[in-house]
Amino acid sequence: MPARLCQERLSELYRTYNRREFVHPDPLEFLYDYDDLADREIVGLIASSLAYGAVRQILKSVKSVLDRMESPSLFLGNSSKAVLIDTFKDFKHRFTTGLELATMLRGVKEVIERHGSLYACFAKSLREEDETVIPALSLFVKQLASAFDGRPRSLLPSPEAGSACKRFNLFLRWMVRKDEVDPGGWDAVPASKLVVPVDIHMHRISLALGFTQRKQANLRSALEITSAFRRIAPEDPARYDFCLTRLGIRDDLSAAEFLESCRIYPGLST
Known about the structure:
The protein has helices at residues 3-17, 37-49, 55-66, 72-78, 81-87, 98-115, 118-125, 134-145, 166-176, 200-209, 219-232, 241-245, 255-261; strands at 92-93, 96-97. By secondary structure, it is an all-alpha fold. Strands 1-2 form a two-stranded antiparallel sheet.
């Protein structure tokens, strides 16, 4: 597919669907309720970490967590390990237990105590020479995961294990980009360094667009896909993530129709 045609179709898709009215149902919508960046970054981490499984259950689970902490930053600041465990003892989201969630939040609390905010922690790990956020993300995950003392933690995947880290890259998209959909706030992190959040749906779309030939939606695929998007939008490779994911959610738009408009016939259906 000619690059110009691809860019034209992506830009049209962005203009049409990258609007707040198309966000629901998406865990991103919870971030809009928090003007204070100290709260919003915690909400973003919770919402993105639980963003696996059916979307209705995701929204229900995120709401359940947030309903227990009127101000997330104040709640964490005032909560001991025992309080966190007790607060979420009956929480369950698929295979995520209340204990795992409480342990992650304890890691968040400890990072904030050490650095002042999640933003400050991440920014300190980001180097100008890094092409992407992945090296900083690896260090960020290590600090959050310290509360687990080496125990398994499904909510905190690491790039060092080869994971595409879709949920972390989603979190970074929300916190770094700023437009009608993404609220931003992490202004010192360049959008040009973001990595596209790659799940099965985005991987299939990217395969059809010729952005990758890799069969697994892993970190190498995510970096390859991001590199292809960077050729189209060098300063903002994650720009088209939200509107492309609408292809698998909205009834009035399908992946097959979009790809056909790009003169690609992959035989995909949504």
